Amino acid sequence: MAAKVRIATTSLAGCFGCHMSFLDLDERLVKLAEVVEFDRSPITDIEHASNCDIGLIEGGVCNSENVHVLREFRKNCKTLVAVGACAINGGLPALRNFIPLEECLAESYLDGIGVENPQIPSDIELPLLLDKVRPIHEVVKIDYFLPGCPPSADVFWKFLTDLLEGREPSLPYELVHYD
Amino acid sequence: MSKTLTIDGKAIPFEEGQTIMEAATAAGVYIPHLCHHPEYTPHGSCKLCNVNVNGRVCSACTFPAAEGQNVINNSKELNDDRQKITQMLFVEGNHLCPGCEKSGNCQLQAVAYHLNMLDNHFPHFYAKRVVDASHPEVLIDHNRCIFCTLCVRASQQTDGKDVFAISGRGINKRLIANAPSGLLKDTDLAATDAAAHICPTGAILIKRTGYQVPIGERIYDHHDIDEVSLKVEKV
Question: By the CB < 8 Å criterion, does A132 face chain B?
Answer without folding.
Answer: yes
